[in-house]
Amino acid sequence: MGLLRYFIPEQQKPSTASPSSDTPSDQTPTNTTLSTPSSSRLDTDEFEPPLPKLWTPQTNLKLLLGGTAFLALSLLTTRRAIHRRRLAAIPPFYTSAPYHKPTVSGGVEAFEALNLATLNVLAFAMMSTGGVLYAMDINSVDDMRRYVRRVSLSEEEMAKGLVEGDQEMEKEVEAWAAKVLGEKFGRELRAQREKESEDARGLVEGEGKKGE
């Protein structure tokens, strides 16, 4: 056995240790392949694509479409009720007109007419309100405030901020809210007013810098 080991070339000896030497090289690609999904997941988590316009909160458009659908349903209900009453007033083929006396309840008829009129008025008001808000591009109370200030105030008054009369009126509203609803609510209104004035000043200063 010693002579055989002596005559065996040395190149064949590492054949038994080759699996152990190959294992680190085999393990390294697996580590790299396992690390790549984590990096891709982090990239996908950090990147958030913007929502499409259909998912954004557009109150004016929703109010307009909802009012239109509501008005269509109310008109369909009114038409069916009128058609049903007209058919009830027609006598059958075996009865003459003078002897045809359908049972009518005045209270029920008046209540149904009042309900139908209320539905039609509410649906039309909802649709018209949504149309006006959509035409003015108003989606919230803040948008309404900006629109009113833009229409009522001039450029100089917008640059200065609120008019003295508006400031006095807001102070009176704050005092009334603090008296009726509590000091906490009054402080919140005061903080909101100060924040709005600071935002208006910042916008004016930014426009002035752009003009320069």
From TrEMBL:
Predominant localisation class: membrane
UniProt organism field: Aspergillus aculeatus (strain ATCC 16872 / CBS 172.66 / WB 5094)
Protein name: Altered inheritance of mitochondria protein 11
Ranges of biased composition (kind: Low complexity): 14-41
InterPro entries: AIM11
Keyword hit for Amino-acid biosynthesis: no
Keyword Chaperone: no
Gene name of this polypeptide: AIM11
Family indicated by similarity: Belongs to the AIM11 family.
